[in-house]
Each structure stands twice: as structure tokens, then as C-alpha cells.
Amino acid sequence: MNPFRYTRAGDVTEAVRLGGAARTKYLGGGTNLVDLMRETLERPTSLVDVTGLSSAIDEREDGGLRIGAAAKNTAVAEHLAVRTRYPVLSRALLAGASAQIRNMATVGGNILQRTRCTYFYDDDGSRCNKRVPGQGCDALDGFNRSHAILGASSACIATHPSDMCVALAALDATVHLEGARGARTLPFTELHRLPEDRPELETVLEPGELITAIELPALAFAARSTYRKVRDRASYAFALVSVAAALDVENGTVKDVRLALGGVAHKPWRAWKAEKVLRGQRATAQAFRAAADAELADASPLRDNGFKVELVRRTLTAVLGELAGGGA
Ligand code: SF4
Question: What is the value of pTM for the model shown?
Fold first, then answer.
């Protein structure tokens, strides 16, 4: 690990002032960043510890929730309002990592965790455009079973590893940011980028910009929501595919729906096309499959991950069936 300077920020203003310096990173629970520093894939010369900033989970006047970016994953997953009004978020968090990691990891850090593409980590032997822009991507012709089937580019086919982010994408969350130019908000679905020809850029954050909070809108039917993660083993594994879904069915017809997919793209993938197909349809397995097919029409499977297309289709159909009351 390279030497670095450590400072603990007392408030957001101080954090942003310190965080604006070159080669500076914000430190949450460190469950990904410290690993990357040990591997020398990240080489900041300065860390600004933001774990002392807001970790509060507060009710909003409009019925939504505001979650401070320093809130621990465990605290969010166990919060009564999250469990009862947004079970998809609680379940996504509990599907991620291990209990020990969830106790350390913060919401802000979870959002900014980096891909687990093995070629990205293989600093000695593999080419990676995300690690060294312009170098090439050995995953393209390598073992790409865990890689993207949607929104990838010839520069990068990595997937985003977070479970929590898939739920936030489905829930129409808003991200609160603070930077040198002041405060701003962004729809969560616009925070992460697709790789295009700049895979080293993973979000639209400006240099030194800090995530301060997440807001969940009031969404009554999110009480009928869930998260299903398909992975190679029962715990402590990243998603091959995952589905976050909330469903509002009235008299057998889909009144409204929110859907997002994990393990399939460089960012949490909001399934806008599937949602559009479903609204106003009878809540049947046939309609659920048609929605999945609409979303997957643009899928571009690679040599080793063609199974993900059918896995998404089946998982999405099963999850919607479960939420509609027809079982899994
Ligand atoms: Fe790097 Fe992306 Fe290629 Fe993986 S898929 S080796 S992260 S460029």
C-alpha cells in the first residue's frame, strides 16, 4: 500500500474543502476502497474520512425517507420504515456481502464501489481500459461469464457489483451531492454511467463531489416489493443476475410497476421498457414474459454469458408472479 494522509472531516463543508484536493478520496467503511489501495489499483495520497457525517434515517414531510450517506448498510436494512415500506431495499442490502461487511459499509461507499471484473484486479497480467485508459480489454476475448449483456461497449463489458443500487434505481431514489460549486440533486438512475469509450468514468460526479444523502420518494405500492439475487453460492457472492421489483395490481391489472436489474450492465439497469410494456396489462405470466422480452431485445450476450438472457427472463417473470400473488 502506498503512503497516504488521513483526515477525519467534521462536517460537509470541511469534507468538500479537503476532498477537492488532487488525488484525494472520500473514505466510508473502506470495504472496497482499502482493498483497492492494498492492490495499488487506487493510489490516493489523501483520504478524507466521512463516516462522521450524517447517518440519520429521517422521515420526509411528503412521506418519503432521507438516508444520510454515512448510514451503515446494516442500519438501513434493519430500519423499520425501510423493512415495511421499501422491503426491496432491505432485501437487496441483506443479499449483499457478509454481515461483517454490511456493518462497516456505508450507503455512500456502496454506491461508489467498483467492478469486480477479475481482469480489472489483475494488474500484473491483464489489459484493462478501466485501469489504464486505452490499454485494451482482456475480458472481451477472455472468460466473461460474469460480464454485461446490456449497455456494454467495445471498451468495457464490466458489471456494477452493488445490490443496494439496483433497489435504489427501481425506487426512483434521488442522490444529494455537495461540491465546490454547491449542492445539487440527481435522479439515482443518472448517477452511474455506461462505459462507452470512457470506462474509467463510472459516475457523473464532478471531481471532489460528495454524496451526502439518498432520498426515497413516497411510493405506497413499494410496500409490495422484493429483490431476488441469483448467484453461484448462497452467500457472499456477487449477482449473476438480480431483479428489484415493486408491483401495483388492481383487479388483476398492472396499475404501476418499478423494475431494475443487477449483474447485467455497467450500471444498475432500470428496466424502463419492461415497465412500459406491463402498465395496463393483465397481471399474467404471459405479460411478465413479454415485459422481460422487451427489456432483453437489445441484449448482446458474450461467449460465456449467454445464459444470463434466459436467467433474467425467468427471474423477472418469477418475481413478478410472486408479487402478483401467483407464487414464485
Ligand atoms: Fe477492464 Fe472493463 Fe475490460 Fe474488465 S471489462 S478488463 S473492467 S475494461
Answer: 0.98
